[in-house]
């Protein structure tokens, strides 16, 4: 089904052959989970090119592909492709320029008697709409994150370091059945929470701290991505107002989510709420992104994104404010687009939580 859809897209663009080198695109189309392979796809044939290290694995995982085991010491990738395409009436090859080194491009240019051209992000577009099996993995990854957070919050206490708290959270994610972490955990406290993608450090929690947690689980390659921001102890009036502003922005965006809206329009709805607040100078860029095999994938929900949302897309909604010296708040959820709206995949409480000390 995925290959059929890809070929329909290739035909509309008059692509004769397509070479894929991005590992997640290769996995999506073929099922291959190794780290060294390329896909060569024509109108009627599909080849997975690898080497002796992965041949047996490829034969097990990629039943619909012809597996080509290339001797890397005797044959370059370009020579292998030239040999496969020689019997075919093909004079053009589309490449994933965004996922191709300059060195490899020059090698292919030298060795292939073909016109090389950039390919549109066809596979990324296909990956944006998830099938039932993908949604099952994403739901499981989101559930693990929800349960890990619910377990962690009562463990947080004065004097604990960011690193200690992050370690607890990560161990729990594995204990709940994750294959891997979705990405390195972001767990920041106090004024450090204003670092949108800071790393957990040795700062110790103090009474009244913001604690920002951005984390996820990975299940069969598919990732969840959730952020919650809490206060350790009693939140000040300014903290409550700051938090409520972000909450209102997320709620406004969620209320507008439906098929047919663009990423730009959705971003602007949240940005209007944030920009109309006293904290307009501290607004983070963008509203969210697609999530699946990659943490950040098509579409990117930000200004200028003309992608029209469709049923089956899984995206994050994550407005944020980041005020240096004061702290940051981000509230992030994973959602799946339905035919008339959306469904939440992450379910942890969104209202400001004030943890006892």
Description:
- There is one protein chain.
- With 357 residues, this protein is an alpha+beta fold.
- The relative contact order is 0.12.
- It has 2 domains: 2-126, Creatinase/prolidase N-terminal domain (Creatine Amidinohydrolase, Chain A, domain 1); 129-355, Alpha-Beta Complex (Creatine Amidinohydrolase), CATH 3.90.230.
- It contains 10 helices and 20 strands.
- It has a 6-stranded mixed β-sheet, sandwiched between helices. It has a 4-stranded mixed β-sheet with strand order 8-9-12-20, with helices on one face. It has a 3-stranded antiparallel β-sheet with strand order 7-10-11.
- α7 (132-152) crosses α8 (162-175) and α9 (237-256) runs antiparallel to α10 (263-275).
- The chain has helices at 2-12, 23-30, 55-61, 77-85, 102-111, 122-128, 132-152, 162-175, 237-256, 263-275; strands at residues 17-20, 38-42, 46-50, 66-69, 92-95, 115-118, 180-181, 186-189, 209-215, 217-219, 222-223, 226-232, 288-290, 297-301, 314-317, 320-323, 327-330, 333-337, 342-344, 354-355.
- Helices cover 34% and strands 23% of the residues.
- A hairpin with a 2-residue loop joins β10 and β11.
